[in-house]
Backbone:
C-alpha cells in the first residue's frame, strides 16, 4: 500500500477532501470533532487555530467590556462561529451583530448580521491579515478591525468586495477609530488595549 508521504514524494498532486459547514456541524455532533477542539472551516478544509496566550485573551476580555458598554442594543459574540458561505465557518475574536430575539440560538450569524468584526492579532497577525481578511471581504462583512497587540494600532478594513476591502487604513495609538455601522463604538486606539 502506498502512503500519503510516498505519493507526495512522487510528485502526485493530492487534493484535500472538502467538507461543508453542515458536514462540519454533523462531525461535531457525532463526536468526531471534540467540542474543545480549536479548528475553523476555511473553504471546506479544517484548519487548526493558534493557541491563545494571556495578552491575547486579556485584550479580548478588555474589548468585550468596552463593546458591551458602548453598544448595549447589539449582540457581542466572543470567539463564536460566523458562517460566511457553505464551506467557511470562522471563529472571530469578537463580533458585534444586530440584535435578534433569540441571540442567535436558532442559527449562527452570517455576514449580513455583522455590524463590526474584531480580530486581536498577536502571533496570528499573518493568518488574520492574509487568510481571514480576504474571506471576510468575499463574505461581505462590512467592517473589520485588526487590533495589533505588538504595534498598539488598529488596521481598519471597510467596503468589502470579492477582491478584498477597498478602504483600508492603519490607525496609531493616539488616533480615534469609529465604527461606521455603530456610531457609539468610537474609541481612542490606545484605549482598546488593557494596561500592561
Residues:
Amino acid at each position: 500500500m502506498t502512503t500519503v508521504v510516498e505519493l507526495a514524494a512522487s510528485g502526485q498532486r493530492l487534493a484535500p477532501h472538502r467538507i461543508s459547514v453542515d458536514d462540519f456541524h454533523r462531525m461535531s455532533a457525532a463526536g468526531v470533532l471534540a467540542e474543545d477542539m480549536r479548528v475553523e472551516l476555511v473553504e471546506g478544509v479544517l484548519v487548526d487555530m493558534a493557541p491563545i496566550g494571556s495578552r491575547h485573551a486579556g485584550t479580548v476580555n478588555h474589548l468585550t467590556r468596552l463593546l458591551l458598554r458602548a453598544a448595549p442594543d447589539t449582540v457581542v459574540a466572543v470567539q463564536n462561529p460566523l458562517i460566511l458561505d457553505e464551506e467557511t465557518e470562522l471563529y472571530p475574536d469578537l463580533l458585534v451583530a444586530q440584535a435578534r430575539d433569540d441571540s442567535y440560538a436558532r442559527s449562527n450569524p452570517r455576514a449580513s448580521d455583522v455590524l463590526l468584526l474584531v480580530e486581536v492579532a498577536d502571533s496570528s497577525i499573518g493568518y488574520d491579515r492574509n487568510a481571514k481578511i480576504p474571506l471576510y471581504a468575499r463574505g461581505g462583512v462590512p467592517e473589520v478591525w485588526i487590533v495589533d497587540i505588538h504595534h498598539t494600532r488598529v488596521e481598519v478594513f471597510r467596503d468589502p468586495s470579492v477582491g478584498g476591502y477597498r478602504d483600508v487604513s492603519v490607525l496609531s495609538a493616539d488616533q480615534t477609530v469609529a465604527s461606521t455601522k455603530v456610531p457609539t463604538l468610537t474609541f481612542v486606539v490606545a484605549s482598546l488595549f488593557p494596561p500592561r
Notes: The chain has two domains: 4-45, 50-192. The mean pLDDT is 89.
